[in-house]
From TrEMBL:
The keyword DNA repair applies. It catalyses: Hydrolysis of DNA containing ring-opened 7-methylguanine residues, releasing 2,6-diamino-4-hydroxy-5-(N-methyl)formamidopyrimidine. One of its GO terms (molecular function) is damaged DNA binding. Its EC number is 3.2.2.23, 4.2.99.18. Signal peptide: none annotated. This is Formamidopyrimidine-DNA glycosylase. The keyword Hydrolase applies. The lineage of its organism: Bacteria, Bacillati, Actinomycetota, Actinomycetes, Propionibacteriales. PANTHER family: FORMAMIDOPYRIMIDINE-DNA GLYCOSYLASE. Keywords: DNA damage, DNA repair, DNA-binding, Glycosidase, Hydrolase, Lyase, Metal-binding, Multifunctional enzyme, Zinc, Zinc-finger. Belongs to the FPG family. Its cofactor is Zn(2+). It comes from Nocardioides panaciterrulae. Residues 239-273 form the FPG-type domain.
Length: 288
């Protein structure tokens, strides 16, 4: 799933490609992806792209006062094409293509979503805050106003909730997803199950530094990369996420996993849980 660093880099890359170009047409291949009807998607025709920005994990293409907002969800992506086909895409359950943004010179974007579970979302709005997911976003963790004191207040307000869930909840902190919550908790040497309000001052400062450093470094590495390079860059720098069974790059212990109904988390027992494996209830049920 694209998270804050990848969406930030996508916005930067697409800003350079789209700005000052006219949108000739937005062609839908998966009609269920479009979540709005007013303004109609045809209202984007003839608009000029002014900017491409990010709100949490939402990508915002600002075109003559209208906004084409994308949430790429778990398996969505944006692919730049120097030349697009002249025939519109046909709806197909077998094709990953969800929509196509055609510019005046026939270059443009293919918006795709892999897999059968379709959750990619597109919105055409007059104001980004008209998108419910943007209107309810928490603070962005890389802005200047995301201070140590703000993090302290958030964690105290969330009480005994597990720190992993708090960090990835978009209404609490914007942009951190499953992968980077694993990564920054590993950097902070903190259990993903630790209660949010149980951190002492040293732990709070360590977590705050990890948030800023892990995300900031990922943004720096991604800046200037083309969209086609971002997935590989992200994967090559992950310490624990998606690396179950592999050695921890810090201590050499085996990275372990806890599975849930539709997701999983990865962690290092030595670095994060005092050497004790966390209970994996789904695995326990399978072993009975």
């Amino acid at each position: 799933m694209p998270e804050l660093p990848e969406v930030e880099a996508l916005a930067l890359d697409l800003r350079g490609r789209l700005r000052d170009h006219a949108i000739a047409q937005v062609q839908l291949a998966a009609f269920s992806a479009l979540k709005t009807f007013d303004p109609p998607i045809s209202a984007l025709e003839g608009t000029l792209v002014d900017d491409v920005t990010r709100h949490g994990k939402f990508l915002d293409i600002d075109a003559s006062g209208l906004h084409l907002v994308l949430h790429l969800a778990r398996a969505g992506w944006v692919r730049w094409r120097d030349e697009l086909p002249t025939t519109p895409p046909r709806p197909s359950n077998k094709s990953p293509l969800a929509a196509r943004v055609v510019l005046e010179d026939r270059s443009g974007l293919d918006i795709t979503e892999a897999g059968t579970r379709k959750s990619l979302a597109m919105y055409v709005v007059r104001d980004p805050l008209d998108v419910p997911g943007i209107a309810t976003l928490g603070p962005d963790p890389l802005t200047d106003d995301f201070t140590l004191e703000m993090l302290r207040e958030i964690l105290q307000r969330e009480g005994r909730k597990q720190i992993k869930g708090v960090l990835r909840h978009q209404g609490t902190i914007a942009g951190i997803g499953n992968a980077y919550s694993d990564e920054l908790l590993h950097a902070a040497r903190m259990s993903p199950f630790k209660p949010a309000n149980s951190l002492d001052e040293t732990e709070l400062q360590t977590l705050y530094a990890a948030i800023r450093d892990v995300l900031g470094a990922a943004v720096d590495r991604s800046r200037g990369l083309a969209a086609s390079e971002l997935k590989g860059e992200k994967k090559s720098h992950l310490a624990v996420h998606g690396r179950t069974g592999q050695p921890c790059p810090v201590c050499g212990d085996t990275v372990r996993e806890v599975s849930f109904a539709d997701s999983s988390l990865q962690y290092c027992p030595t670095c994060q849980t005092g050497g004790k494996p966390l209970a994996d209830r789904r695995l326990s049920r399978l072993l009975k």
